[in-house]
Specification:
There is one protein chain. The termini are far apart. This protein has a single domain, classed as Oxidized Rhodanese, domain 1 (3-Layer(aba) Sandwich). About 35% of the residues lie in helices and about 15% in strands. InterPro entries: GlpE_sulfurtransferase, Rhodanese-like_dom, Rhodanese-like_dom_sf.
Amino acid sequence: MSYDLDGVEQLDYAELKEIFDQKKSSPILIDVREPEEYIERHIPNVPLIPMQSIPERIEEFHKDAEYIFICRSGTRSHHVALYFKDNGIENVKNFAGGMLAWESETESGWEGQVRDIEGLYSKQT
């Protein structure tokens, strides 16, 4: 069950799985781990935007979109959510357990790092 930490809603596995299974374009799920971690194991079709690249790209994100961040354990993704809020993007959530808590299907290999942030929004229906 979700809870609040530092003003960021924390989602558990069941909540994220329900969102993932709906296959809707919103909220936008983003993996913020390092490429090596992503290649090893990631949630299918969830794009990678490494945490360290976000500060230089924060202005590219739409302020009115909804985002859920994913990392290994939920710590880095929580920090990304806080960073988004500090930069005026309020509708953010964190997958509290991270990939350690993800019990469903995964992929390995490279699906690709997001190079064009606008591409995140072109998939919206």
